[in-house]
Amino acid sequence: MSNGEKTRYSQEELAEFEELIVGKLDKAKSELKYIKESLTRSGDSGTDSTFGNVKTLEDGADTAEKESLNQLAARQQKFITNLENALIRIKNGTYGICKESGKLISKERLRAVPHTTLSIDSKLKQSS
Q: Which of 19, 51, 65, 86 has CB 3.0 to 4.6 Å from 115, enough for a Cys bridge?
């Protein structure tokens, strides 16, 4: 590391990432709220139709839709948690440092995946 390589991002750089993450967090939370509202609505709508076979088909579609909404909600919740954890890393000064190599994660990668804890090299090593 004696070649002048940075080991952490400056306060200004961290502030830029924090702004990016807060924006994504707000959007993710409003999307999660919308998904939860959709789940509630799809739970309410099953009482109108009393046509035997049609009702059964609708129930099946409702169930499939509910499952996919539940999966979407779970993924969104995980994304929110990852973003919140990234904000904690910004506060404690460990943001942008690869947990495998200890080197700085590139700004390009952090802009694309702001909650990542792995550099692209470490990520590729993991998946091989």
A: 86
**Is 32 inside any structural domain?**
yes
Domain total of the chain: 1
Give the range of the structural domain holding residue 69, as residue numbers without chain letter: 11-93
Burial (CB count within 10 angstroms: exposed 0-12, middle 13-18, buried 19+), residue 7: exposed
Round to whole Å and give the CA distance between 21 and 113: 10
Report, in angstroms and rounded to the nearest whole number, the Rg of the chain calculated over CA atoms.
21
Question: Has residue 21 been placed in a domain?
Answer: yes
Length of the chain in terms of residues written = 128
121 domain residue, yes or no: no
Within-domain flag for 75: yes
How far is it, in rounded angstroms, from Cα 66 to Cα 69?
5
CA distances from 97 to 1, 4, 40, 112 (A): 14, 16, 40, 15
- The pLDDT tens digits for 33-63 are 999 998 888 666 554 545 555 566 667 777 8
| Higher per-residue pLDDT: 34 or 65 | 34
